[in-house]
Amino acid sequence: DAKTTQPPSMDCAEGRAANLPCNHSTISGNEYVYWYRQIHSQGPQYIIHGLKNNETNEMASLIITEDRKSSTLILPHATLRDTAVYYCIVRVYSGAGSYQLTFGKGTKLSVIP
Amino acid sequence: KAGVTQTPRYLIKTRGQQVTLSCSPISGHRSVSWYQQTPGQGLQFLFEYFSETQRNKGNFPGRFSGRQFSNSRSEMNVSTLELGDSALYLCASSLEGNNQPQHFGDGTRLSIL
Q1: Which of A27, B50, B92, B96 is most open to solvent, judged by the fewest CB atoms within 10 Å of its CB?
Q2: What's the pLDDT tens digit per position in A3-28?
Q3: CB-nearest partner of A98 from B35, B43, B48
């Protein structure tokens, strides 16, 4: 089972920041939080990941709370092309060097013109 | 750098047949994972290969199998196809380690008639 909880849907006005929340209260100390998004009929696209520090790249920022029980993905200036399903995933060690992604239902973000 | 390439993009089969799907990972990536995506069950992990060895497996019947070649390319096979096997099959590759994101291809859409 996925170790994360996300709202099923969110709306955001074009040009505004989109803030997507994720709860992961059972995360362990060495487990990373990963964010992906999926646009219809395409494969999931990697966005960003983090362990405990805030992270930023050209696509987004990831804010992780100090207790690591929740995080927020921030798209600073949402465009219509950011409309997608966003998945927050805690990557779990499965043994033998394997780290597994377990996808939940994600948040469907709709960017409104 | 080329992304993950999956072939074919679309496939139509009938019940009882078998099918082989192919995945070429990003150059230098030795870990290859396969996922099944359906509207009802979402994205589910099938298995992961590393250095030609399966090191993790999801909860799927033995009709689903895979292999990896010395150049890290991977194939998955589904035998005795059932209507419920209709899905988008996704392949992802990564460098080794928990801090290395998986990168997905755009999948093979398999339809069973």
Answers
A1: B96
A2: 899 999 999 999 999 999 999 999 98
A3: B48
